[in-house]
Every structure is written in C-alpha cells, then in structure tokens.
Write a structure and sequence with these properties.
By secondary structure, the protein is of the alpha+beta class. The protein is built from 16 helices and 9 strands. Among the domains are: 142 residues, no CATH class; 117 residues, no CATH class.
C-alpha cells in the first residue's frame, strides 16, 4: 500500500486557535514552513519572506485568503500554539510507514537557544531525541524533554517501547548503559550495542578483565579524515554468565582500540561496549562506526546548515515544534536522494512546484483537507 502523504499527518495536529480572527488555515502555514525550510530558510522571518515572494505559486496548491501569505507574527503564533506531543506524534506516525532493518543510532541533542542559567546547577534546556538510520540517514522517530522535568534516559526508554521497528540494532552512548534500557530494547524485539564507561564500574571492570584473554573474533582497519589518521582494532569476547543474568539479552563484550594522530597530537584510546547481538568483529566495527553518523550527519547538519541552535526560540514548546519541522524537511530531502542537505537545498532552488510535489507525495483528495 502506498504510504500516506506527510500532509495527512500534519492535518491531524489540533488547531487550538480561536475561530474569531482566524484567517490562515493551520495546515497551510505548516506546509509553508516545511517548504521554506527545504529551501534553506531557517528563521520565521525568512520563512515569511519566502512565502510572500512566492505567494502566486503557493496559491496554486494551498488556499491563501485574498492571495495573502501568513505573516511573521502569524507563523510565530501558530508555532507557539502547537502541542509538541502532537507534533512529534504526527512525525512518528508518518515515518512508521517506512520499516527498516538497518542499525539505528539513538541520541539526544539540546537546543542551545533554550538554555537557561548555563554553567550552574539550575541549568535548564530542551532536547530533541532522535532515532537515526545508519544506512538510509533518515530520522525514524523523535521525542523531546525538558531536563528539569525528565531525563533523556527515560524518554529514550519510552520511545523504544513504542518503536514499530523490529530485528534491528540500536546503538547508544554510555549515558544509556542502563539495565532498564537494554530490557526495553530486547522486549521490543531488537538488539543493542551500547558504550560502557565507568558509570557502570562492575560491568566496565568485567570487560577490562577480558582484555588480556584471547578474543573469539577480531578485526583491524585504518581511518583517515579531517585532521586525523588512526589504526583501529576491535575484539569480541563472550560475556560472563553472571553479567548475562544482570543485563537482559547480553551476549558479548567488545573493545575498540584507536591509535594515531589527531590534530598533530598522538592518541591511544580504548572504548568498551556490550551487545545482545551475535555478529562478526567486522560487522560490529561497521555498526559502531555507523553510530557517529547521528552526530556528523544529523546533529551537525541541524546546527550548521539548518541553524537550529541559533534559531532564537526560547520557549521549549516552540523550539521543539520548529525542531520537528526541521526533521521533516531533512527527511524529505534525504528521501529524494540528497545525502547532503546543503546540496538538496541548492537543488530545490525555491521551485515551488517541485517542493509541493515532494511534500504532497502520496496524498489524494487534498482539497477535502482544506474544507
């Protein structure tokens, strides 16, 4: 069955505005935001200017009262009134139509503009948590948190329990080396590869004690990149029985030693991992290296290309809503063959007809949505 258009899911977000004085349909405003973001418009003022400049073209596809597009203040008010839980749910139901078996990297990213009282014990901020495909480079699920109300650990555990993807591997950093997290992963029908640091001292020591014993498999490779040149070696051991009892699904310990030169300085580090999967050392190496894509391909892009951290939105709800809109535009560009979001933005060239075709793909009887 053909996937439903993104528009179907955006249309299900409740419009909480009062009927009196309401001029622009909420769905029209959301579509304009997404289309503008696909053209590299990263602020609400830039989105409003884009809409005004292309109002004649936009009017061919969405209703614009008196041929007028939403103003900056209208876009701002619309975004602030959206319920972020509904916005995330809309995104997640849209992406649930695209099952995958690739390894998925899970991680959180704070939105700098929401930080209050930095460098103090009272610091507050809002974060988006993403599940990112290592192969397709698509965002499959999003969630959010305000750090003074809940933790990233809790949000990620809840998101795992609601994932409709099975038989894949979730990769996570040491923050998520938690017994409840591994249980949630296994209960969801998936596997895990998680970094282990000294926040889990007993587990960390158990892996370190294996370091001088013969591994069941190993693999070596070289990496070269921006300012670094390194040699890496991965080793795999079967996990101890007592640890298997404590950590659900645990099958093996992993170590990765990295040696080389970074920014003109020598380094020699060893990182430990645990996993519920039974893979070769070569395959584990690929999965572990793939985890960095969530930082390099998603978080970096959202910061540098989509200007998320400098968006100027302080209110948590507004920052989350626009963050998810960025995720939507990110996915739409990737779905249309652009691994580089910068290249995708350039290729779009503010061609409204092409942008509308991408956003409305899979939709039928769109006019009924607009009443």
């Amino acid at each position: 069955m053909e996937p439903k258009s993104l528009i179907f899911f955006l249309n299900e977000i409740e419009d909480t505005r009062k009927a009196k004085g309401k001029r622009h349909i909420q769905l029209s405003t959301l579509i304009i935001i997404v289309i503008a973001m696909m053209c590299g418009k990263t602020s609400m003022k830039a989105i409003a200017r884009f809409a005004k400049a292309h109002r004649n073209e936009l009017a061919k596809y969405i209703p614009l009262p008196r041929q007028q597009t939403p103003s900056y203040s209208t876009i701002q008010r619309t975004n602030e009134r959206l319920n972020p839980n509904e916005v995330c749910d809309s995104f997640n139901r849209w992406m649930s139509q695209y099952p995958t078996s690739e390894p998925i990297a899970a991680d959180g990213k704070s939105i700098t503009s929401t930080v209050i009282d930095p460098n103090t014990n009272e610091q507050k901020f809002t974060s988006l948590v993403s599940f990112f495909g290592q192969v397709t480079q698509l965002i499959y699920r999003v969630g959010f948190l305000e750090n003074d109300k809940c933790s990233e650990i809790q949000v990620l555990q809840k998101m795992i329990s609601k994932m409709q993807i099975t038989k894949t591997i979730f990769t996570m950093d040491a923050l998520h080396c938690q017994k409840k997290t591994v249980q949630a992963v296994v209960d969801s029908g998936n596997d895990y590869v998680i970094t282990v640091k000294k926040n889990q001292p007993t587990l960390h020591k158990a892996i370190a004690d294996k370091a001088d014993t013969k591994p069941i498999d190993s693999f070596s490779w070289e990496q070269k990149g921006h300012g670094h040149d390194s040699k890496c070696r991965i080793k795999i051991w079967e996990a101890d029985e007592n640890m298997k009892q404590k950590w659900k699904g645990l099958e093996c310990y992993i170590s990765v030693r990295r040696q080389g030169i970074r920014d003109g300085k020598r380094f020699d580090t060893t990182t430990f991992y645990i996993s519920s999967a039974n893979l070769s050392a070569w395959r584990f190496a690929k999965v572990i290296r793939g985890h960095r894509k969530i930082e390099n391909n998603l978080h970096w892009t959202k910061d540098v290309v989509q200007n998320e951290d400098s968006c100027g939105l302080v209110k948590p709800e507004a920052a989350v809503n626009m963050g998810v809109m960025r995720d939507i535009s990110f996915n739409l560009l990737v779905m249309n063959g652009f691994k580089s979001i910068s290249d995708g933005i350039s290729a779009m060239g503010e061609k409204v007809s092409n942008l509308w075709s991408i956003v409305s793909s899979g939709a039928k009887k769109l006019c009924s949505m607009f009443g």
